[in-house]
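QA checklist item 7 of 12: single-chain prediction sanity check.
[x] sequence parsed
[x] length recorded as 179
[x] structure emitted
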Amino acid sequence: MVGSLNQLAAVAALSLFVAACATGPSDNYGSDSASASGGRIVRLAQPMQCVPYARENSGIQIWGDAYTWWQQAAGQYSRDGQPSAGAVLVLDHYAGPTRAHLAVVRSIVSAREIRVDHANWLDAGNIYLDDPVIDVSPANDWSQVRVFNLVTGAWGGHTYDVRGFISPASPPAQVVAGR
């Protein structure tokens, strides 16, 4: 009897944990109905990583691991803390200190919601198109985001740190005094 009660308690606890991971944010950062529509997953015969996908779909010609992109972009591309269509979103410390994730901003929905296209989200090698991302940072500065899980149809349960946005436009030319 005690074993059965322990098993029942364990199943109940696990069910609550799983349900909590699949629910949307408790704050009203984005419109759930607007955010949940439109996104789709493209399954590929050969898995694709986020780096080649971002490079091919943004025009930003940077190579190497995603976590090196922000530094490599310095002086070569515009870097900003705010999203713009066509820019590459760099999620910092994604799955560890030397891991990042890249996504191409498809559109700006509102001051706190964007849509992105990216590859290998959830490590399946698929392409995710028109995937909603919301700014959940307390200062509304795009330093922290949550990503809509197109597989489950709910907001993901993890908050990701944002390094910033790399724009395909070159940085402004610096004016040198006396020239």
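[x] summary fact logged: The radius of gyration is 19 Å.
[ ] second reviewer sign-off
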